[in-house]
Specification:
Layout (H helix, E strand, L loop, with lengths): L3 E6 L4 H20 L11 E5 L2 H10 L9 E3 L5 H10 E6 L4 H4 L1 H10 L2 E4 L4 H18 L2 E3 L7 H16 L4 E11 L4 H13 L32 E3 L4 E5 L3 H17 L10 E7 L2 H18 L2 H10 L9 H5 L2 E10 L3 E10 L2 H19 L9 E2 L2 H5 L1 H9 L3 E9 L12 E2 L3
Parallel strand pairs: 1-2, 1-4, 2-3, 4-5, 5-6, 6-13, 7-10
Antiparallel strand pairs: 7-11, 8-9, 8-15, 9-10, 11-12, 12-14
Helix pairs in contact: 1-13, 3-5, 5-6, 7-9, 8-11, 13-15
Length: 431
């Protein structure tokens, strides 16, 4: 008997507290809008975490309107408790990371119970392991399991989906889609812990596989060479700016390629020559090299035990993160350029206010969870380990637009198709 629509697991952590506040505001706004016999039934939701006292503090922070909100004590190390939790709810949202340490039992329980699931992990090696272990079960029970529903990797995944569909709507398949990111914000202790955990376990090396999340039967095609990660700064003539390697590209691009693979299995893929890569947009040559150098230093330091200890000392601890003012003052902007086989060009943008790793991530995560609760009849009939694009398509686009984000893609012109597909660089050494 599922007596709950949505459970937020891990609400005593930094990001978890934000999800509780976000959903509480959403519920209050919905109640204010609706009246009369046609009102939608109220959301049946609950907060879950390991410690009762901390749960009570989070609930108290939401205000008197939520004083009766159910609190569920659940330790993710207790398989029986996790199983019981998954069986009670239609959708489970979890912010308990590092996911490789605390998330495996939750995924297993949701797959077995047919419970829909969303998280904000960037731990793609762990996601690969979960797919291998639980995909067959989730397909059998009908569970929709959607990792990477935050800044990793909603802007990339929905952005490419919009651009690709715009190109196909213009009568051509994509051969090259590129994204550049601009952002202002900080990161929290949970994000740092996840990254350091991957490096400590050696799993970080698996991040270098561009097709890590693809189904085994979906082999890299002719565009494999154009799908490699950007490793050094360059001037991108297509994007019209200097570009540096992007920290999140090793996560986002894998999710985008899994979307293409899953769509392709249904005859809805982006095309046989589709290639995608993304970069950090830079103000100029020196800025691009500075960003690239900093990324290289952090990566090198994180690969060593002494370096990880240093990063733990200087970075935020789990449960800590940027100030409210810093999160409110942040932003992100993802610019996309897609080229079709016929030369048609589409430009897209995914952008929004707020720190991308916190404010924007929470907005995306909670919107995804609520889409599973409230828009189920509008979602594609798919199950198993999905991506934001393959699970939600237009539904999540609409929800995020309603929450103040820009998501757009439109044809802007055409270039000669005689040049063929862009090369892996398509750049010039401007300086």
């Amino acid at each position: 008997m599922r007596d709950l629509d949505l459970v937020l697991l891990g609400v005593t952590g930094f990001t978890g507290r934000q999800t509780a506040r976000w959903v509480a505001r959403y519920v209050s706004e919905a109640a204010a809008r609706q009246a009369g016999d046609d009102a939608r039934p109220p959301l049946r939701w609950a907060l879950a975490a390991r410690h009762r006292g901390k749960l009570e503090a989070v609930r108290a922070d939401l205000g008197p309107d939520f004083s009766e909100l159910p609190l569920l004590v659940c330790d993710t190390g207790d398989d029986a408790a996790v199983t019981a939790l998954a069986r009670r709810t239609r959708v489970l949202l979890t912010t308990v990371g590092p996911y490789a340490q605390y998330g495996s039992a939750v995924v297993a329980a949701c797959a077995a119970a047919g419970t829909d699931y969303v998280d904000i992990t960037g731990e793609t090696p762990w996601v690969r392991d979960m797919i291998d272990a639980h995909q067959a079960t989730a397909l059998r029970t009908g569970a929709r399991l959607v990792p990477c529903c935050g800044f990793d990797s909603v802007p990339s995944d929905l952005g490419v989906w919009l651009v690709a569909r715009a190109l196909q709507g213009a009568g051509t398949d994509p051969v090259d889609v590129r994204a550049s990111f601009s952002a202002k914000g900080g990161f929290n202790g949970g994000t740092l812990a996840s990254g350091l955990g991957m490096m400590a376990s050696g799993e970080g090396r698996r991040l270098f596989d561009p097709f890590l999340l693809n189904p085994p039967e979906r082999k890299p095609g002719p565009a494999a060479d154009r799908s490699q990660d950007v490793k050094r700064p360059y001037y991108d003539d297509v994007l019209g700016s200097w570009a540096a390697p992007f920290l999140m590209a090793a996560i986002n691009t894998r999710v985008v390629r899994r979307s293409d693979a899953l769509f392709s299995a249904e005859g809805q893929g982006y095309g046989p020559d589709f290639a995608y890569r993304e970069v950090m947009r830079s103000k100029g040559r020196s800025d691009a090299w500075l960003v690239s150098g900093a990324l290289g230093v952090v990566t090198a330091v994180g690969m060593r035990e002494t370096g990880r200890k240093l990063l733990k000392r200087v970075g935020p601890a789990p449960g800590q993160g940027p100030s409210e003012a810093a999160m409110d003052g942040g932003f992100f902007r993802t610019r996309l350029v897609g080229r079709g086989a016929s030369g048609v060009v589409v430009k897209g943008e995914i952008s929004g206010p707020g720190d991308p790793g916190n404010r924007a991530t929470v907005r995306m995560l909670c919107s995804a969870a609520l889409a599973l609760v409230e828009d189920r009849e509008r979602l594609p009939e798919r199950a198993g380990f999905l991506t934001p694009a393959t699970c939600f398509e237009q539904v999540l686009v609409d929800r995020l637009r309603d929450r103040g984000m820009t998501l757009s893609a439109s044809v802007v012109g055409a270039v000669s198709s005689a040049d063929g597909p862009p090369t892996a660089a398509s750049s010039s050494a401007r300086g």
